[in-house]
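Quick one: sequence plus zinc ion SMILES, need structure tokens.
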Amino acid sequence: MNGCDLVVRSRRVVLPDGPRPAAVCVRGGRIVAIEEYDAVGGHDLGDVALLPGLVDTHVHVNEPGRTEWEGFASATRAALAGGVTTIVDMPLNSLPPTVNLDALAVKRVAATGQIHVDVGFWGGAVPGNAPDLPRLHAVGVFGFKAFLIDSGVPEFPPLDAAGLAAALDAVDALFVVHAEDPTEVTAPPTSRRYADFLASRPPAAERRAVGTVLDVARRTGGRVHILHLSAADALPLLARARAAGARVSAETCPHYLTLAADEVPDGATEFKCCPPIRGSDNRERLWAALAAGLVGCVVSDHSPCPAALKCGDTGDFAAAWGGIASVQLGLPVVWTAARRRGHPLADVVRWMATSPAALVGLRRKGRIAVGCDADLVAFDPDAPFTVDPAALHHRHPVTPYAGQVLTGVVRATWLRGMPVTPGGPPRGRLLDRRDE
Ligand SMILES: [Zn+2]
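Reply:
Sure thing.
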């Protein structure tokens, strides 16, 4: 097409109103037209689907400070390999945590020049930093993360209900909350049995914390989002709050949708995360909530650490770091399970691209539409592969999905119209809420 830098054609372009044959025309990094499939020449994918690049709003990059756990180069290479073209980095486990202007500046410097996908930042809300929140929001963070329970790292302490209310009062911004209530959680015993760890973090901990968050949101009028929801028992509270008009949303993660507690082998600490993976009926209720739109986003909670901290040698669930690194595998993991349940690819795109972009206000991401960034992923939805940890780009390729046969392979990716590969030069940009 005249005047376009790039045209990508596919018989299965996943557009906001559903998939159809189309040609996507790109100029200056943006989508400028969607034409009929046969109307123009260009790069033809045939039956390989064309998706908007996924948007993963829950990634722990850990750099600087814990760069031996993960870093901007390795995390964004893994993202790119997995069809994720935008990530929003969590404010902890880096040092310093992103709780004030200086810390955000340090993060931006650390990321510059080594990111393979576009990267935005969350700020952190911790005890005593309410005055920092409006300042951080003014310079472009997409919102604030808070914990209601020990975060796992001492420099990012939790808030209580009063602290969360003070934070919401300090700035009109999106607050994303790790919702487990410490009064319902016990210290797990040293054990190789997953059931012992699971029992220490019961559904009641999530239900009670979600109740607290909803209560604070009601009192302050603030905008809140429940991170990594695992316990389906919390869903009725969310449904009631939304019916009553509360500004509340929720996400879940690939592991809660596809793994189950009774399938975790003894000592398999690669399955440990917080909140924990629960039973198979809980999992089915999460799928129902996704189908009903009560849970809108599926994001990775990519949270790696060095293999030694995962305690694979002892298999002790109490001592192991809680976190599953899946930014590279989320798309095929979710798609494999979704298609088995009869969900079309368009649903996966909504959960993993469109809704997360909308959550953080990235208006030009997460959709194939005129005016959007040309972040495009050629995805072969029928191609099977076996998960090989050696093919993972993140720093410590420990994964509970090792050996699983999944369906769906990323064949090519364009970032703002540029062809990009994990082995190529880093072409990502830092994102700022104010530019959106
Ligand atoms: Zn997280």
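Residues 58, 60, 90, 301, 303 surround zinc ion (CB under 6 Å). The first helix runs from residue 72 to 81.
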